[in-house]
Specification:
CATH architecture of the largest domain: 3-Layer(aba) Sandwich
Number of strands: 17
Distance between the termini: 31 Å
Bound molecules: adenosine-5'-diphosphate, zinc ion
Largest sheet: 7 strands, parallel
Number of domains: 4
CATH superfamily of the largest domain: P-loop containing nucleotide triphosphate hydrolases
Strand order of the largest sheet: 3-4-2-5-6-1-7
Structural class: alpha/beta
Oligomer: single chain
Strand content: 5-15%
CATH class of the largest domain: Alpha Beta
Number of helices: 26
CATH topology of the largest domain: Rossmann fold
Radius of gyration: 27 Å
Length: 612
């Protein structure tokens, strides 16, 4: 296998990469990370989804003697992870609450007799004394702490059981630990290091850019229709995830899509666990299924060919948004992250924050998260630059987000801002009243509605002073004032109230720049795209071969009861369809075809290639 540095002898790690995984070379910082852990050192790895974190602990576990213990909260996915490793010829098992006594005993036996390379463990298992005793009796090569941000209370996936992981080092001081996460604000990063006692660890922070994902944020109008249009025009037949805030809207949206000819299944915590498991498994196994879900869905989903992630409601934080959208395009092919958001989202989220449990500091933290998310929505800058900046990284305007592709104009909104704030001021101070956006806009537009008459708002001096903007434009003004913290909402009805900064605008000491939405956000894919069922970057003559390979893969996956990607990823099938290997030796040179898969699937692939 070419393309490695010729003057160096292949390290054992590199040999494993070739032989077991069938890959040519390490990516990014993988080599340094693996060397650190193989050498017995601790590592803290921040790498975006799809960056290749798994190899960073799987290879050291194969190189070092003993069993690599992987702590992961993703019980539902452990079986798939083990299947994927088994397909590679790696000896793996898991211990979690889904197993019966007999199954658990088998795995424990394999662990004790040294017949495992990797053992996946749910964190709560470590609370059970017998598990700890079991671990004491075997030989552990390393601890991998996956989804390490779960230890952070600042973040969005906190799991109390993760706090116990700080004790690993006391109990097993000689076993190296590697903590991995795709979440990467400075705050979370620091918290992971402290809480896990990773005092000596080397930190590896990769670039968080996901260049193949196109970020788009549009004003919410009729979200289901908007979504349908997106799927019909750009993602027909693609697998994707649609996130909604509530169980109710998950159900409604899934039904709506199905009624409109798009196969979709719901996923939320209110469904019984069997239905949930079934829908998740269908999503992983089938090509082109859409899952409509609350954020309960998705952590650890390593389906490589998710082509879009759509949000129908505003995420609670930029971190959450980035994690969720990051589930698109792990395979590096063009993908879409699309979010529709409106004023009502802000009202709803503020309300949730106001009524949330926890102390004032906690609520303040939630408020800060929301503000950052709003700022991202209302930016006139490149979305990617803004996202990376949130994670403390720099970027250039990317050319692959909506603000780059269709730059919004920015305009001086000082006067409308003054009109709006002064309406809120007058209601509050002349009438001792608070109202939501709808009434405030009706006053500005001078509408004689029932409610206007009832409260005699047509007597206010501001009545009808805002006819230069349309209703939707006023909503935009309000959103931006909220995003800039010049206005806030409170209470059950989302009433508008001034903030300490509002006075600066009212007192003409501050200008307010605003974003004008492009009439219609035009879409454009970075790739040439075009055809319906696009197979990106595939020469025309290779397309039917690729389809044939996919059919073979689907049949094989079904027969073996594993997700299709466990057999080969799309990227590998594409390479095969382009190179048309005519022997097992040639097939073995293709990236993603390791020793074990060659032995297991080689003949099948060659037959599929030969078939008509
Ligand atoms: P993460 O866990 O960081 O989201 P994964 O470990 O799932 O990412 O890797 C993402 C994809 O990249 C997987 O399909 C994986 O097989 C592939 N990959 C990882 N490292 C390499 C490499 N060195 N060469 C080729 N492909 C790789
Ligand atoms: Zn951009």
């Amino acid at each position: 296998m070419a393309e490695t540095t010729p003057e160096l002898p292949d390290s054992e790690a590199l040999q494993v990469l070739h032989r077991v995984f069938g890959y040519d070379a390490f990516r990014g910082q993988q080599r340094d990370i693996i060397e650190t852990v193989v050498g017995g050192g601790d590592a803290l790895v921040l790498m975006p989804t799809g960056g290749g974190k798994s190899l960073c602990y799987q290879i050291p576990a194969l190189v070092r003697s003993g069993v690599g213990v992987v702590i992961s909260p993703l019980i539902a996915l452990m079986q798939d992870q083990v299947d994927a490793l088994t397909a590679l010829g790696v000896r793996a098992g898991f211990l979690n609450s889904t197993q019966d006594f007999e199954q658990r005993r088998e795995v424990e036996q394999a662990f004790l007799s040294g017949d495992l390379d990797l053992l996946y463990l749910a964190p709560e298992r470590l609370r059970v004394e017998s598990t700890v005793r079991l671990l004491d009796q075997g030989k552990i090569s390393l601890f991998a702490i996956d989804e390490a941000h779960c230890v952070s209370q600042w973040g969005h996936d906190f799991r109390p059981d993760y706090l116990m992981l700080s004790e690993l080092h006391e109990r097993w001081p000689d076993v190296p630990r590697i903590a991995l996460t795709a979440t990467a604000t400075e705050a979370t990063h620091a918290e992971i290091a402290t809480r896990l006692n990773l005092t000596e660890a080397k930190h590896f922070v990769a670039s968080f850019d996901r260049p193949n994902i196109q970020y788009r944020i549009v004003p919410k109008d009729n979200p289901q229709r908007q979504l349908l249009e997106l799927l019909r025009t750009e993602h027909e037949g693609d697998a994707g995830i649609v996130y909604c805030l509530s169980r109710n809207s998950v159900e409604k949206t899934a039904t709506f899509l199905t009624q409109n000819g798009i196969e979709a299944v719901p996923y939320h915590a209110g469904l019984d666990s069997r239905t949930r498991a079934k829908n998740q498994s269908r999503f992983l196994r089938e090509d082109g299924l859409v899952v409509v879900a609350t954020i309960a869905f998705g952590m650890g989903i390593d389906k490589p060919d998710v082509r879009f992630v759509a949000h129908l409601d505003l995420p609670k934080s930029v971190e959450g948004y980035y994690q969720e959208t990051g589930r698109a395009g792990r395979d590096g092919l063009p993908s879409t992250a699309w979010l529709a958001y409106g004023l009502q989202d802000v009202v709803q989220q503020r309300k949730m924050i106001d009524t949330s449990e926890g102390d004032a500091a906690h609520r303040r933290r939630l408020g800060t998260h929301l503000d950052a998310m709003l700022a991202l929505c209302e930016t006139v800058q490149c979305r990617r630059v803004q996202l990376l900046a949130y994670f403390g990284q720099q970027g250039e305007p990317c050319g692959n987000c909506d603000t780059c592709l269709t730059p919004p104009e920015s305009w001086d909104g000082t006067i409308p801002a003054q009109k709006l704030l002064s309406t809120v001021y007058r209601l509050q101070h002349e009438r001792n009243q608070k109202f939501g956006a709808g009434q405030v806009i009706d006053i500005l537009l001078g509408k004689q509605t029932e409610k206007v008459k009832q409260f005699r708002h047509d007597d206010l001096s501001v009545f009808g002073i805002g006819t230069e903007l349309k209703d939707t434009e006023w909503r935009g003004v309000i959103r931006q004032l909220l995003a800039q913290r010049l206005l806030t909402v409170e209470g059950d009805y989302g009433t508008l109230v001034l903030t300490p900064d509002s006075a600066e605008v009212l007192g003409r000491r501050r200008e307010v720049m605003m974003r004008r939405e492009p009439e219609r956000v035009t879409r454009s894919r970075s790739s040439s795209g075009g055809g319906k069922k696009k197979i990106v970057d595939l020469p025309a003559e290779a397309a039917p071969v690729f389809e044939r390979l996919r059919a073979w893969r689907a049949a094989t996956a079904k027969e073996q009861g594993v997700p299709a990607y466990v057999i080969f990823h799309d990227a590998t099938l594409r390479q095969i369809a382009t190179d048309l290997p005519s022997s097992l030796t040639e097939l073995g040179k293709i990236s993603g075809v390791g020793e074990n898969k060659l032995a297991k699937y080689g003949d099948g692939v060659l037959e599929a290639l030969a078939g008509e």
